[in-house]
Amino acid sequence: PTGDQVVSEVDKGAEQKKQQVAEDARRVAIEEARLRVEIARAKFGGDETKAQVFVRVRKIISDKLGENENKVNLNSNLSELGPDDSNESLGLNLWEIVILIEEEFDVSISDREAKDELGIHYIEIYYSSIDSCYRRSSSRGSFWSMLGSILGISDSFSIFELNSGRPGYAVRAQNCTVRRFVNFIHKKLYG
């Protein structure tokens, strides 16, 4: 055989090996997903559809918050998950989680549903109240406490999308658990 033929055969063998590895990885991923659902079924009295919703919701939440999937359980409160102990990014993360879940399950979640069903409260505020509050506080911690008292919020919250003269949002997560997401999405999908 010529050099070109040898190279062609090596390339063909390498391509077949690459396809085999990809197929093996796909099979392993499918089996892992099946096992996750099987394990989760016990938490839902054998209800496979709820277990499937849980596995998908848990994946979204753990990926978005940078949390190990094993630490995300039904009773996990989203305001307590993730590596960041401060609540600065909580609101944006919650908003993004809602959007990711809407996309994953092809559902729409209204602000009212986010509040009533999921425990996520969006409060529109204006920069001037933030600025005034910030100037009166002597430290960052007291700033958040003062802002929370002005807004009537005592639990976890976050401020984002603040631009001078334009509205921003305060977000709080009150009893915003994985279980609430799973039950709500399951009800939307299966009635």
Keywords:
191 residues; mainly alpha; three-stranded antiparallel beta sheet; 7 helices; elongated
Kindly summarize this structure in a few lines:
60% of the residues lie in helices and 9% in strands. It is built from 7 helices and 3 strands.
Characterize the structure shown.
Strands 1-3-2 form a three-stranded antiparallel β-sheet. The longest helix is centred in the first third of the chain and has 39 residues, at 3-41. α2 runs antiparallel to α3. The model is unreliable at 126-130, 132-141 and 154-167 (pLDDT under 50). The chain has helices at 3-41, 48-65, 90-105, 111-116, 127-136, 140-151, 178-190, and strands spanning 120-126, 157-160, 167-173. A hairpin with a 6-residue loop joins β2 and β3 (167-173). By secondary structure, it is mainly alpha-helical. The chain contains seven helices and three strands.
Strand order of the largest sheet: 1-3-2
**Strand percentage, roughly?**
5-15%
Shape: elongated
Low-confidence stretches: 126-130, 132-141, 154-167
One letter per element, helices H and strands E, the order comes to: HHHHEHHEEH
Per-chain topology:
Blueprint: H1 3-41, H2 48-65, H3 90-105, H4 111-116, E1 120-126, H5 127-136, H6 140-151, E2 157-160, E3 167-173, H7 178-190
Antiparallel strand pairs: 1-3, 2-3
Helix pairs in contact: 1-2, 2-3, 2-7, 5-6
